[in-house]
Automatic annotation (TrEMBL):
Subunit structure: Component of the nuclear cap-binding complex (CBC), a heterodimer composed of ncbp-1 and ncbp-2 that interacts with m7GpppG-capped RNA.
Organism annotation: Heligmosomoides polygyrus
Protein purpose: Component of the cap-binding complex (CBC), which binds co-transcriptionally to the 5' cap of pre-mRNAs and is involved in various processes such as pre-mRNA splicing and RNA-mediated gene silencing (RNAi). The CBC complex is involved in miRNA-mediated RNA interference and is required for primary microRNAs (miRNAs) processing. In the CBC complex, ncbp-2 recognizes and binds capped RNAs (m7GpppG-capped RNA) but requires ncbp-1 to stabilize the movement of its N-terminal loop and lock the CBC into a high affinity cap-binding state with the cap structure.
Pfam families, per database record: RRM_1 (PF00076)
Places the protein is found: Nucleus
Name listed for the protein in its UniProt record: Nuclear cap-binding protein subunit 2
GO CC, one annotated term: nuclear cap binding complex
PROSITE patterns to which the protein is assigned, alphabetical: RRM (PS50102)
Family indicated by similarity: Belongs to the RRM NCBP2 family.
PANTHER family referenced in this protein's UniProt entry, alphabetically: 20 KD NUCLEAR CAP BINDING PROTEIN, NUCLEAR CAP-BINDING PROTEIN SUBUNIT 2
Main location: nucleus
Lineage, uppermost ranks: Eukaryota, Metazoa, Ecdysozoa, Nematoda, Chromadorea
InterPro entries, A to Z: NCBP2, NCBP2_RRM, Nucleotide-bd_a/b_plait_sf, RBD_domain_sf, RRM_dom
Annotated keywords: mRNA processing, mRNA splicing, Nucleus, RNA-binding, RNA-mediated gene silencing
C-alpha cells in the first residue's frame, strides 16, 4: 500500500485500501516544472496504455485503463529520473466530486505550501506548460 493516505477520503481506512486496490490512477510527484505532458505520455506509455494525464505542474496524475498497468508504473518507474529529477510514483484513489486532485491543502504537494515563490530546483518562477490542442489530456 502507498506511503500516502488521503485524510479527505470519504470512508474509512478499509474503504481507501479497497479503492487503491482497484485504482487505475497514479500520483507522480517531484516533477520539474519543465516536464511536458508529451514526455509523461512517452514515459508512462512504456508500461501501459495511458488514458489521461492530469496536467503536470510539479506533480500530476496519470490514469491508465487497468489497475495492472498502474501497478507496473509504480514498480518500474518510481525513482526514474525525468527532467533531471527522480520522480515519485504512487497509487491514488483518483478524482471524486468534492475532492481535489493533489496532496495538501490547495491541491499541491504538502511541502509546496511552505516553499517560497521562487524555487531554482523546480525551474525558478515556473513557466507555462506547452499545451497541445488535445483537450481531454489523452496520450
Amino acid at each position: 500500500m502507498p506511503a500516502y493516505w488521503d485524510c479527505r477520503f470519504k470512508g474509512d481506512i478499509k474503504d481507501q485500501e479497497e479503492a487503491l486496490r482497484v485504482s487505475t490512477t497514479v500520483y507522480v510527484g517531484n516533477l520539474s516544472y519543465y516536464v511536458t505532458e508529451d514526455q509523461l505520455c512517452e514515459l508512462f506509455g512504456r508500461v501501459g496504455e495511458v488514458k489521461r494525464v492530469k496536467t503536470p505542474c510539479g506533480f500530476c496524475f496519470v490514469i491508465f485503463y487497468t489497475h495492472f498497468e498502474a501497478t507496473d508504473a509504480i514498480r518500474f518507474l518510481n525513482g526514474t529520473t525525468l527532467g533531471g529529477r527522480p520522480i515519485r510514483v504512487d497509487l491514488d484513489t483518483g478524482f471524486e466530486e468534492g475532492r481535489q486532485y493533489g496532496r495538501g491543502m490547495h491541491g499541491g504537494q504538502v511541502r509546496d505550501e511552505y516553499r517560497d515563490k521562487y524555487d531554482p530546483n523546480r525551474g525558478g518562477f515556473g513557466q507555462m506548460v506547452n499545451m497541445t490542442g488535445n483537450t481531454n489530456n489523452a496520450c
